[in-house]
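ENCODED BACKBONE
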Amino acid sequence: MYGMLYESVAFYVQKEYGQDVWKQVCQIVDCKHNSFKTHQIYPDKLMPDFAAALAACTGQTFDFFMNFFGKCFVRFFSNFGYDKMIRSTGRYYCDFLQSIDNIHLQMRFTYPKMKSPSMQLTHMDNDGAVIVYRSGRTGMSKYLMGQMAEVAKEFYGLDIKAYVLESQNDIAGGTAGPIKLSDTPLTVIVKYRLDFDNRDYMAKRINVTAHPSHLSLPPINMSVFLDLFPFTIVLDHDMCITHAGEKIVETWILHNPGKNPKSFIGSHVMDLFECRRPKGTKIEWDTLVNMRTVLFEFELLRTGRNKAAYDAAMNMDFENFDEMEFSEASATLRKSEQENEDSDDEVDLATGERKSSHFFKSILIKGQMFYMKDLDSLIFLCSPLIENLDELHGIGLFINDLNPHGLSRELVMAGWQHCSKLEMMFEKEEMRSDELEKSLDLADSWKKQGDELLYSMIPRPIAERMRNGEEATCQSFDEVSVIFIEVMNVYNGDSNKIQDAMLAVTTLNTVFTAIDEEIISPFVYKVETVGMVYMAVSGAPDVNPLHAEHACDLALRLIKKVKSLQIPDLSIRIGINSGPVVAGVVGLKVPRYCLFGDTVNTASRMESTSEPFKIHLSFNTAKKVEEVGYKVVSRGHVKVKGKGEMETFWLVDTPKE
């Protein structure tokens, strides 16, 4: 699917349900795209995946969101001016329904890789209409119902009720395609009933009588008619060709060397053509006679292309045609075919240059089927689908071969003139889209870096609350464990040498980096560093009932880590205390997450009265960890500033397994 469909989904899901829901949906479906490019192709499965993820997130049904996505697309394409195309199809909703297929055909110029469905209006009455949907893509029936309802409401002021009458090969909730039990490709066919007030249309377009002047028109000669429409085909009740325009016959002869030129007339139309649109339609009289408003697209079947064979066939006397002459012509054709087999390329009729045959595009003709009462026949009034001069030459036609009336010739010339301009515009748009994609990726990278910096200053839960506009109030914790680590013998304060100061900074950075590597969030959080002292806490901001154990585990790991650095004369001492604290963010310029309370002061005293490469525990912390098996040794009573005599302990080892 083209990116525009997913653009509409992303835009309206964020608008209706918020960015958080859309981010959650993208995570569920593992969508790596930050944005969608309008003209880029994306996997079909994303659409039902998005619907399923939204259903899981919101509690709504899968069908509800597929219907919602269809409505989103109709609302969204107005940004591209496509609403004008819809409004210009006609005054009534049925006019639009009749034009859906033609709209899809026209859109192929802008979206050449679009796999559009085929839709036909098969029945109309005062209470609504019936349309038949055919597609090679499954799971989109509810999406189409959303589109139909939104177009009716937005452009025609109608509230319609759409429901499925019949369904074939449609698999709800997926776009992998119907299960194939044979090699024949299957087509999804869904018949819808659309209920709405259709009385005005029926009165003014269907239930009308012919004007008397129309009834008195004289008959027209068939030869004149075929001259006016050189690509016309006339079909009888058996779907055999009874008459045909000169140019369609010549084109068939050019691309079918070796076949009897006179066999075109009298052949069944499906022996010479393949019906491309409407998909899956049975080419039968009873079916086609009721499809007056449907645009048909046929592809000419061909066995090859041979200019010499074509010239030989054109020089034959068809009025006095006999088998001997045809045998001689066939020999010429076979000889020409053999010459072509010796060369991989063919000659472009217009330029004379060699052109690889496999680059020729399909020869398509498009038009409507009209019932002619005077002939009791169906006339396929059509013209070739040609985008530019290159395609015209590839088919083997010239400008003068096209219908002299209408805009066929002008459109081909205009397509050639504007082709380069459009290509430049598309290239610029692609470049702008790529630049935007790079800018978005760069913005995401900057955002991640900013988030990492923010989370290094403020705990993630607190930062998220502040980002959402919530007040960053103080928070009390019943019990945490505060750790102080001081790095010793790093810098001689009496030295005036710059080299000594720089060495001290480098050494301190090495030690603090090693400590940072041992901090495991959310079990332990780094609070701050002040001078030679490193402060951390376990149990805040994330409540942790095992805070004392995690603090002691960290201290034991740090002793081993710093010793492994093997920095001469350097040592650390650690103090830990457990108790209640109050925490909060302080400051605006450089906000910090700070801890307050007597527990912090006591932990600092434990560190200042500790010894090199030893872990000093308060009574509260020691009793907690000793109960679970940690090996602690009493230090006795120590005089602590501001506290007096306190019984403290040394932490020796972790519990034995």
Residues 174-182, 340-359 have pLDDT under 50 and may be disordered. The two ends are 59 Å apart (CA to CA). The first helix runs from residue 3 to 17.
